[in-house]
Amino acid sequence: MTHPASQAGSAERSWVPEFLLLSAIWGASFLFMRMGATEFGPLPTAGVRVGLAALVLFPIMLQRGEWPAFARHWPRILLAGVINSAIPFALFSWAVMHIPTGLTSILNATVPLFGALVAWIWLGERIAQIRWVGLLLGFIGVALLAARTPNAVGLPSNGTGWAIAACLCASMCYAIAANFAKRYLVGVPPLASATGSLIGATLCLAIPAALTWPAHMPGPRAWGAVAAMAILCTGVAYILYFKLIANAGPAQAVAVTFVAPAFAVMYGVLFLNEHVTPWMIGCGLIIVSGTMLSTGLIGKKRR
To answer: What is the predicted pLDDT for the residue at 129?
Structure first.
């Protein structure tokens, strides 16, 4: 007979494989982004990514009967897609051509940091003292990281500072989009919101992507990378993410943001010959610690 305590422990750990799988998938998105952007260019990479991802999720949304929800809220959902997908995907696609993919993933971990700040400014959410400490710590980590940033292997060395700024702007976009959804998309089914936002991003990027389409057709490697981003890192990852929220709760789901950079750094070392310095790792730990404090994931008083 199985002891109840062991059953509870097993249930609590049942989401761990999904958590690690999602972290590994999202960490790989930066690798695929580099592989695609070097041949497609930033805007076509982002455009093809959101377009293919929308095609993946659209039939699933229809099958689950969530089209009416999208039809009722489509203007706001499409706008959310511009903020949450079109702009940040394009910015990250440009940034990975100038700085290591592992570094871009570390900077992407600041999304909850910016999210707390945007919620305070826009929605008037209260920030406790310990969370202010976390915000300060996180931004100090970003400043230290930016002060000694290595250039990407084999890519242009100029524009490093701008690449960091692009990553931070992209993270800010994610934070704004999250708070936008909290304010204007409450009650909209997640799949309808995600699919609709990808449609909005596709419409936004269609003309810029067409105007900047490469003169020579990208090869199978680049097409495969962009397809992997769309199907695996966007479509499949999205389904895993909301399954994780249901099984483990939002706090554990958000924590994927802090684990994904470890996979991204590993992929960069293994497949792109990127060099990881102790400074990068140390600054990354400062950023993650500050972000976890600022979001309340650590430092909470237990009753």
So the answer is: 85
